[in-house]
Amino acid sequence: MTAGTADRAASADRAMAGMSEAGVRVIALSWVDNAGIGRVKAVPLARLPRLAVHGVGMSPVFDTFLVDDSIVRADGHGGPVGDLLLLPDLDRLTPLAAQPGWAWAPADRYGQDGEPYPGCHRSFVNRMVQAAAGLGLGLRMGFETEWSTGPGGLGGGPAYGLSRLADSGSYLLDIVDALTAQGVEVLQIHPEYEPGQFEVSTAPEDPLGAADTAVLVRHTVRTVSRAHGLRASFAPVPEPAGIGNGGHVHLSLWRGEENLMHGGTGPCGMTREGEAFLGGVLRSLPALTAVGCPSPASYLRLAPSAWAGAYRCWGRENREAALRFVTGPAGEAAQRANAELKCFDQAANPYLLVGSVIAAGLAGHEDAVHLPEQFADDPARADPAELDRLGIDRLPAGLDAAIRHLRDSVVLRKAMGDHLFDALLAVREGEHRLFAGRSRTETVEATRRRY
Ligand code: GLU
Ligand code: MG
After folding, report:
1. Could you tell me which of 213, 225, 244 has the C-alpha nearest to residue 32?
2. 121 belongs to a structural domain
3. Is position 393 within any domain?
4. How many angstroms does the Cα of residue 216 sit away from the middle of ligand 1?
5. Separation of alpha carbons 190 and 198, rounded Å
6. Is the C-beta atom of 106 inside 6 A of ligand 1?
7. Does the beta carbon of 236 lie inside 6 Å of ligand 1?
8. Would the CB of 190 count as within 6 Å of ligand 1?
């Protein structure tokens, strides 16, 4: 037994005692595939010591599953042969408050030789976090989760209406209680714009923690919804006629205890390093769209004047800019200044998304990129000549255009590595083909219950 496996065995013994005390009998190990679907294998608690060291087997074919569970073949991907090991992250093993008897852990994927699998999304995030750490930089990130229970669901009434709490108060309370019991810090929860639509946002964390939390939040909302007789949809557009569900990502860049989004000489008080990082993200945004808006359905949501951030520009507190800069309230700005990427939705694999955003930001940091002038209105209402002058363009209007940017992205290919990048590209291209010629309603119906 190596030192690493001895440590894991000892941690598993400790975790086993804790889980048993919490009444846990089965552990759900989850990962998210390139199509953005959370997948699972479950193992009885008694197997945890073995599982923590030797993992549970799973096929690499999941790398090229599409949203409808069909499989595309690409060079070296999608075949029936091979096996990987899923190993739980014991630090994140959590009893599920809304599913007594169950615990959840995000899983890392390894080859049978014990080496990290090049297609593992969590190790991609770790590599990007380490690349940042190599420069003395750290990141704090967090997701906003929007979902819809459908127009006939809970909470009909005015957008953001207090009256909606009369129907939905006990439902939202159960969500907050479950998340809190699971160690997730809730910042806000409220009825959203559409009838039956809600949002919860959670506290910033390290990037891997933020992606794990996004998975856990969604599972918790889904489970509590079922207990209330509801079905939650996290799809980019849950109803053909309505506003979409975003999956906005907040981020701040840190050097030790110093928030580089604040206290500098750059625009809106950013430091030069903070500006260069955000400049890199803005520069790569068209390619990042293929990661963060990965479904043909994503482009039904990513429309102008819908608070989805359909234009590649930035602006302080501008909810129509893909990159909204938040300086934070006086007194707390040094802690709270951050950038919000509004254009992304929850068809995205959260691990791929945080890793790709870090890669784009680090490339900007390396090139000392400057941000362009900020924009302080809805670009859809501006004179196109003015947008041209400022270099502001629409983000891709369809998955095909986003795929072209992804294919050309040297930054993302290098960061992900060929194995992961090629599988992702094959999935994106496969979904583009799968949905070709479908109407808006057909696309919404095919994705409503998938994410
Ligand atoms: N639902 C909007 C979206 O699709 C976002 C609304 C908001 O800004 O909270 O992203
Ligand atoms: Mg919202």
Report:
1. 213
2. no
3. yes
4. 20
5. 6
6. no
7. no
8. no
Residue 93: domain span:
3-116
Residues 98 and 167 grouped into a single domain: no
Cα 47 to averaged position of ligand 1 atoms, centre (Å): 42
- 348: helix, coil or strand? coil
Locate the ligand 1 atom nearest the alpha carbon of residue 199 and give its number. Answer: 9
Instruction: Report the distance separating Cα 353 and Cα 367, nearest Å.
Output: 21
Looking at the domain assignment, is residue 301 inside a domain? Answer: yes
Q: What total number of domains does the chain contain? A: 2
Mutate to test the pocket of ligand 1, among 160, 201, 245, 293 (most ligand atoms within 8 A of CB): 245
Q: At what angle do helices 399-407 and 418-435 cross, to 10 degrees?
A: 160
Report if pTM > 0.90. yes
Q: Clarify whether residues 107 and 133 are in a common domain.
A: no
| Per-residue pLDDT reduced to its tens digit, 239-296 | 999 899 999 999 999 999 999 999 999 999 999 999 999 999 999 999 999 999 999 9
CA–centroid distance, 198 to ligand 2, in Å, is 8
* Mean of pLDDT over the chain: 96
pLDDT on residue 1 = 54
146 CA distance to ligand 2 middle (Å): 6
Interacting residues of 305 by C-beta distance below 8 A, sequence separation 6+: 320, 378, 380, 381
User: Looking at the CA of 201, which ligand is closest?
Assistant: 2
Distance between CA 14 and CA 438 in Å, rounded? 52
What is the rounded CA–CA span in Å between residue 108 and residue 122?
6
SS3 string, 172-192, reads HHHHHHHHHHCCCCEEEEEEC
Q: What is the pLDDT of residues 26-77, one digit of tens each?
A: 999 999 999 999 999 999 999 999 999 999 999 999 999 999 999 999 888 8
Residues 167 and 288 in one domain: yes
Please name the residue whose Cα sits nearest to atom 3 of ligand 1: 246
- For 201, phi then psi, to 5°, come to -120, 150
CA of 120 to the centre of ligand 1 (A): 30
CATH code of the domain containing 13 = 3.10.20.70
Would you say residue 72 lies in a domain? yes
Considering Cα of 11, then 17, then 20, then 25, what sign does the dihedral take? positive
Q: How many CB atoms lie within 10 A of CB 440?
A: 12
Residue of 190, 299, 342 to mutate, ligand 1, most atoms within 8 A of C-beta: 342
Output the six-digit token pair for 366: 């390396």
DSSP 291-320: HHS-STTHHHH--TTTTS--EEEEEET-TT
Ligand 1 atom with the shortest distance to the CA of 342: 10
